[in-house]
């Protein structure tokens, strides 16, 4: 089960850390546990309860009145609300995906572009990105693997998602003092889905993102890093390589890129080689879920810190 530190909870709920601690002490509704590092860690259920309380306060309820119901009753009310809203939202999102897919096979270019643009404007970008773009990209990949659509259709959809994603990515405000993060795939790796998510998480956390995309040669990556002097290189490694191939590639990164800045790597391929990465000084991210928390560590790479 996912757990979060109080800084992360405050961002997700819109509540201040002071309010969260106050409700925790006064009403015994929130049940954090101590992690191995002694930080108080909040569960997903705690986060959902805090969001529910905040919404109810905005509807005019008093916190004391809500707290008197007890945690179990509040959680039950959240579940009943989620069941009803989830069915409606799930059905709506399913319909959106089905309508987009119906314009792909057979391909109706005008219909797809019209629907894609309409749906992209319909919801906040967070929801568009995670609930439409990512599921659509995965579904299109599945259809291609199953032989139900061709490479052309798959590229057509992927490029539309990529263009919209990069347009929004470039509009996310970033501080000139934010960490510089170069994000790229391995040489010959074409799948960008994971680094889309990583780039978006980095940008939302105030990083200056240099998105280099798919199939980035190590030598060219090193040249770009020499030019830009980033605080971090983030690599997507999903491709399966033989052990000699993987070790040779890691050695290239160690020799050409690691002297310039730290490297983090994520993906199935990186995880399979995690022990060798660790020995080489490259950090492996076990999943995208831990990336946001790890981004806080970038401050140690910044000058004058």
UniProtKB/TrEMBL annotation:
Gene3D superfamilies: 1.10.1660.10, Cobalamin-binding domain, Methionine synthase domain
Record-linked SMART domains: HTH_MERR
All copies of domain B12-binding, residue ranges: 178-305
Top-level taxonomy: Bacteria, Pseudomonadati, Nitrospinota/Tectimicrobiota group, Nitrospinota, Nitrospinia
Family matches, as Pfam families: B12-binding, B12-binding_2, MerR_1
Organism: Candidatus Nitronauta litoralis
Keyword annotations of the record: DNA-binding, Repressor, Transcription, Transcription regulation
Domain of life: Bacteria
GO molecular-function terms, A-Z: cobalamin binding; DNA binding; DNA-binding transcription factor activity; metal ion binding
Protein name: Cobalamin B12-binding domain-containing protein
Residue span(s) of domain HTH merR-type: 3-72
Keyword Repressor set for record: yes
């Amino acid at each position: 089960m996912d757990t979060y530190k109080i800084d992360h909870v405050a961002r997700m709920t819109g509540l201040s850390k002071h309010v969260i601690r106050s409700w925790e002490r006064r009403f015994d509704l929130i049940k954090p546990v101590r992690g191995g590092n002694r930080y108080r860690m909040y569960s997903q259920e705690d986060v959902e309860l805090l969001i529910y309380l905040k919404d109810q306060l905005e509807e005019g309820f008093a916190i004391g009145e809500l707290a008197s119901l007890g945690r179990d009753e509040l959680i039950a009310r959240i579940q009943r609300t989620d069941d009803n809203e989830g069915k409606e939202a799930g059905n709506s999102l399913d319909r959106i995906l089905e309508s987009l897919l119906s314009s792909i096979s057979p391909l109706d270019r005008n219909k797809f572009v019209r629907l894609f643009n309409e749906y992209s404007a319909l919801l906040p970008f967070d929801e568009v990105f995670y609930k439409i773009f990512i599921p659509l990209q995965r579904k299109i990949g599945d259809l291609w693997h199953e032989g139900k659509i061709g490479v052309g259709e798959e590229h057509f959809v992927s490029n539309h998602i990529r263009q919209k994603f990069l347009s929004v990515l470039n509009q996310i405000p970033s501080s000139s003092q934010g960490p510089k993060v170069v994000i790229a795939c391995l040489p010959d790796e074409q799948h960008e889905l994971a680094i889309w998510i990583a780039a978006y998480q980095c940008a939302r956390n105030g990083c200056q993102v240099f998105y280099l995309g798919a199939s980035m040669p190590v030598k060219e990556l090193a040249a770009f890093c020499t030019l830009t002097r980033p605080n971090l290189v983030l690599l997507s490694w999903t491709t399966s390589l033989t052990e000699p191939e993987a070790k040779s590639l890691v050695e290239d990164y160690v020799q050409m890129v690691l002297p310039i800045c730290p490297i983090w790597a994520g993906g199935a391929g990186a995880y399979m080689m995690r022990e060798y990465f660790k020995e080489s000084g490259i950090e492996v991210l076990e999943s995208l879920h831990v990336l946001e928390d790890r981004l806080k560590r970038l401050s140690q790479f910044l000058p004058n810190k």
